[in-house]
């Protein structure tokens, strides 16, 4: 016969969901005791969204017409009469202009004005060779003031030195423009490296730009595939390398190749990028290698004369053709500027000077029959919202700060139960942790769900007009979930509500600070890793929304997986969900291992004993 006491002990307790209903009622009663405070927890993010929307309405959007227009300017014609609009139309720098510009590059002043004048005159006269035996060698006394820039060629082998460089050298010999101004030869303007690693070692070495064996470099042509038989058509693969260390958005800086290849949200033209490609020599060297490949210079007995072997590779030399092709020379603003500065504003070169010296390379295909002009295709009309660019520097922090009140309230609610011994009492009564924590997750989950619905509606109506309201809701709600999970994780560490709320908010803001270390050129992998901090994912997502709304596109299901500033909006959604799970798991772990005023603290790592080998592992 079983005793009544034994029967009572064996009787099962209430199911966790039974406790949860009671705890939910308790949580609702607590919230109803402080209605104003509860209202601010959910209304503050909505109010700040409405405020941002109001400020946006005070800055009128601008419509850009179809044609040639930048983001910040009206649509302009490509030509003013017969004169090209230099804002959009640029002339590809000629090889002659590039060689002259490299030769006349600035040098340091030094203490001795006589030495400086001597070195300056040497530059203008084309004495730029780093070969000390050359008749046009850079004077040794000028080495302390700097070295002329060079074009690097990689690798150093028969194809590059004896075939490519020799043939191009025949096309671009030294050209005397005046008695004291000369265009350096191609041969005096290049330097060879055995491989790409040697090139990089030279650039990063301490002797860079100081010694003749490690001169300053303006660009590098790196060949990766070359014909096996010289003098015959074959496969040529190469890359052009240029310096971008002077700044991401500096004037005439060749754009970086890191980050996104294409900006899918760009609607206006960015003339700075292609102008830099045209002016700084990228197109020039690209055209040079292309002309060499289509020409296929002769090769006999280990030598070349630079004569093209391919039929129709060179245009017939006539006065009309020369005048048409040499128009690029007189449109070359880089050449005109360099020469004007070197000759005190006087222009000495003439068509006869260039026709007699360098007509051959201009006649090689591809010929600049249009004067070597570079200009973009027109764009379709679009709408610009300047508000987001105006507030870009504070946009992320505004969203982070709008959740501070909510975070603080959740921390106080969770930690107060431990501080007042309420949780200890509930456990004594048999209430499991899953019911206690789950009740708060449900309470705040419902509150934040409703708040996220309202946030999405307000944001879609007044701020992010072109974005999907569904994606906006998911974004706000998933961040709210990660906020709740973060608060639970922090609450597992502290037993004093004020201390926990204070340090939890500070930690939240410090997580936001991490986002300020990233730029548009930061790698996607680094941004994904940083998004394990939920405020960082929030900021990256908000930045994507702002960037897309600036050009009247918005984030929709069509572009949610497209990379914007090396980050996808879908990545933010996924990472916020991951953050919610990770923070919750960490909170459960910390609840078990952080010392408390009551209960038994478990070890922070699994341990194995003889008994446990039979019964299993325990933490």
Provide key terms for this protein.
four-stranded mixed sheet, two-stranded antiparallel sheet, ABC-2 type transporter transmembrane domain-containing protein, single chain, 2 domains, alpha+beta, transport, ABC2_TM, 12 strands, 619 residues
Structure report:
Residues 390-589 form the ABC-2 type transporter transmembrane domain. This protein has 619 residues and is an alpha+beta fold. The chain folds into two domains: 13-59 and 385-615, no CATH class; 91-99 and 147-257 and 281-374, no CATH class. 51% of the residues lie in helices and 7% in strands. It is built from 24 helices and twelve strands. The protein has helices at 4-10, 16-33, 35-57, 95-103, 113-124, 158-171, 196-204, 271-279, 282-295, 319-325, 327-331, 333-342, 351-363, 387-390, 392-402, 404-419, 422-428, 433-462, 469-491, 497-515, 524-530, 534-550, 569-593, 610-615; strands spanning 62-64, 79-80, 83-84, 90-91, 150-154, 175-176, 182-183, 190-192, 217-225, 237-242, 373-374, 382-384. The strands form five sheets. Strands 8-5-9-10 form a four-stranded mixed β-sheet, with helices on both faces. A two-stranded antiparallel ribbon has the order 1-12. Strands 2-3 form a two-stranded antiparallel ribbon. A hairpin with a 5-residue loop joins strand 6 and strand 7. Helix 3 (35-57) runs parallel beside helix 18, helix 4 (95-103) packs parallel to helix 12 and helix 15 packs across helix 22. The longest helix has 30 residues, at 433-462.
